[in-house]
Known about the structure:
The chain is an alpha/beta fold. It folds into two domains: 95 residues, no CATH class; 215 residues, Rossmann fold. A hairpin with a 3-residue loop joins strand 4 and strand 5. The C terminus is likely disordered.
Amino acid sequence: MGRVYEALKRATETGTGADKKSADKRTRGRSGEGQSHGATTTARGNGNHPDGSPHPRPWDRHSSIFTAPDTAHSSASAERTERLPGSALPGEQASRVAGATVDAVGSARAPEFPSIEVSAARVEPHLVAVTAPNSPHAELYRSLRTRVLHASERRRLQAFVVTSANVMEGKTLTTLNLAWLLAQTDGVRALLIDGDLRQPCAADYLGIDAPVGLSEVLAGERTLTESILRLEPAGLHLLPGGARRDNVAELLSGPKFSAVLAEARRIFDYILIDAPPLGIFTDANVLINRADSALLVVRSGRTRYAALDRVLEALPRERLLGVVLNAAAEQLNESNYYYQRRRYSAPPEAPENSEPEEALRS
């Protein structure tokens, strides 16, 4: 046992001596290099500044910085992962996705919402996008959808407010019809927000029961993802109004609604907000300032020019996307599509002194 100990001791002393000789040899080599390059380089080789102060040499510095770069890099990565703000992922998953932006949009669109089947027999009859999708009136709403899509591509618009000058002008029905058809567009995720918290009625028009909505989200009682419903078969997402509120302007002006709208922008492609009338409350003005653009609905034979001028004067023109004329006097029917064939066909010759038939007279 003693001989084994002596052998290990000699091997240790031999290794230490070899390391010492190797270090001395490296030191002498560096000093020789410094002497062959003039006074300034000689001062660096001697480990001193030109003024005589000690100059730290790389091989004399702390080993944790220069001999273990991998360890230092790992510590920095771990610290960055631990300080990742707002991360709801476990530690390993957070370290893998920290700083990744390639699939950021896909991860933001991950939430799934409860589905409700909308029955055409229960909705408001004037919701023609559901009750009569092949009617000429539904085609007019499709034309409006096309204009909104084109405008959004040109001007990079995402959130739209739909309002009117006064009550009973059809703004909610216009919003519902447009949103329903917008959700049917291929590759589009659309959200309808019932922003009329004084009298929310979007869920009633759709014939569904939705007691929780934007009102509860702004009050801090529910989260946004807990309150959104997916309406089938169109795939439209709806954030109902919820309970009625009196302090609507204060709620919509606060930071909570800004956070709700910012989160909705990350999840959905298009957002339509049904707002109260402009001529009665300031709620619509607040919503328009938070959104990208606005649509103003006017009703033929009901909206007064004076009221329209008053609301347009207070509305920023750069935010106004257009005006929708509702309930026009023009009567549309499916037979209008085939007018050319009837117009250019020769009428049958009528006998003399005979009255034209009723069909020709009409």
